[in-house]
């Protein structure tokens, strides 16, 4: 249970914390509120307008800090962003195993090396501009923000699988052009990059070369309102991180992908391809946490989508197999 501090209490900087996020008192500091008041709140302060952390170099997604700030004790809310970030980072790191901390730091260094050397081709992509990114019906549905408005632009070929138009063609062209430019830089610089996953040998992680902030906005302002309505039972209303990437398929690339379960609560699939043939996308049944890696069975419900021209939004633990678009690239945004 969290308790509010005394009126006027103000911390001059972050205090050390224990493994459970309890702030320890420092005898060299001015008298502060009782130690119990410095715990994270159990219930977020919905009336508090948190800071934006998009422009800061962080160990975790900026949206995590924006969400976590609502749980800070009242006496910390007025602190400078840098101090709040330090305090929240210490808490987050306490819950990471040592090996995971090392992995996070190595990946941060890897990403910083790319961003410091790669020169973007289309800088307008790196900020979210809704009017030039999304088609008008999609923007209207998000603005109305009701289940009825979303269903007006959607079809639901199978329970928990939704398809609809989302991006303007010009945005898809710019994104493909940017990815091609990044791949060109990788080849010329002989830079070894991390591929999106262990299943695909071709593709790139969009967050790694600077598109993390844009994808944060995509998730927070345009995906979360939809997932809050349709996927609330699996965390759709509290999405706070993502793994955004593009994968490439072709005769000289990966040709297909077998049945698998995405490691996400909600997955966004977008076809960005130019000219292609094929494109069958299958959804076969769902899995509970205990049987997430179980094989598919003949009695599982099979949903077969012949052409994906817009967005496919699917819930957690859908079993998917894809015969992808030859010569095409597909954007995934996973949470």
UniProtKB/TrEMBL annotation:
<dbReference type="GO" id="GO:0051213">
    <property type="term" value="F:dioxygenase activity"/>
</dbReference>
<feature type="domain" description="Prolyl 4-hydroxylase alpha subunit">
    <location>
        <begin position="159"/>
        <end position="326"/>
    </location>
</feature>
<protein>
    <recommendedName>
        <fullName>Prolyl 4-hydroxylase alpha subunit domain-containing protein</fullName>
    </recommendedName>
</protein>
<dbReference type="GO" id="GO:0031418">
    <property type="term" value="F:L-ascorbic acid binding"/>
</dbReference>
<keyword id="KW-0847">Vitamin C</keyword>
<dbReference type="InterPro" id="IPR006620">
    <property type="entry name" value="Pro_4_hyd_alph"/>
</dbReference>
<dbReference type="GO" id="GO:0016705">
    <property type="term" value="F:oxidoreductase activity, acting on paired donors, with incorporation or reduction of molecular oxygen"/>
</dbReference>
<dbReference type="GO" id="GO:0005506">
    <property type="term" value="F:iron ion binding"/>
</dbReference>
<dbReference type="Pfam" id="PF25238">
    <property type="entry name" value="OGFOD2-like"/>
</dbReference>
<feature type="compositionally biased region" description="Basic and acidic residues">
    <location>
        <begin position="1"/>
        <end position="12"/>
    </location>
</feature>
<keyword id="KW-0223">Dioxygenase</keyword>
<feature type="region of interest" description="Disordered">
    <location>
        <begin position="1"/>
        <end position="20"/>
    </location>
</feature>
<keyword id="KW-0560">Oxidoreductase</keyword>
């Amino acid at each position: 249970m969290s308790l509010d501090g005394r009126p006027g209490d103000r911390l001059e900087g972050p205090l050390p914390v224990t493994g459970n996020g309890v702030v320890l008192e420092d005898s060299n500091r001015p008298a502060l509120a009782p130690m119990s008041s410095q715990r994270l709140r159990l219930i977020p302060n919905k009336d508090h307008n948190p800071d934006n952390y998009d422009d800061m170099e962080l160990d975790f997604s900026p949206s995590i800090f924006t969400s976590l700030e609502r749980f800070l004790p009242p006496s910390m809310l007025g602190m400078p962003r840098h101090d709040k970030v330090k305090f929240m980072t210490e808490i987050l790191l306490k819950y990471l195993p040592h090996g995971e901390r090392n992995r996070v730091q190595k990946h941060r260094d890897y990403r910083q090396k790319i961003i410091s050397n790669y020169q973007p081709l289309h800088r307008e992509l790196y900020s979210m501009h809704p009017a030039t990114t999304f088609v008008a019906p999609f923007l209207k549905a998000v603005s109305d923000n009701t289940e009825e408005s979303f269903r007006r632009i959607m079809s639901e070929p199978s329970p928990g699988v939704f398809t609809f138009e989302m991006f303007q063609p010009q945005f898809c062209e710019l994104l493909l052009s940017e990815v091609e430019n990044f791949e060109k830089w990788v080849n010329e610089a002989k830079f070894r990059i991390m591929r999106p996953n262990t299943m695909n040998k071709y593709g790139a992680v969009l967050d790694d070369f600077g598109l993390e902030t844009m994808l944060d906005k995509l998730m927070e302002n345009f995906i979360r309102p939809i997932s809050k309505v349709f996927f609330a039972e699996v965390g759709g209303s509290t999405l706070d991180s993502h793994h955004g990437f593009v994968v490439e398929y072709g005769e000289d690339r990966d040709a297909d992908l077998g049945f698998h379960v995405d490691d996400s609560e909600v997955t966004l699939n977008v076809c960005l391809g130019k000219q292609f043939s094929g494109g069958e996308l299958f959804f076969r049944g769902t899995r509970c946490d205990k049987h997430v890696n179980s094989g598919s069975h003949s009695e599982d419900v099979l949903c077969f989508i012949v052409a994906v021209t817009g967005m496919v939004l699917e819930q957690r633990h859908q079993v998917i197999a894809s015969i992808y678009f030859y010569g095409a690239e597909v954007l995934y945004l996973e949470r």
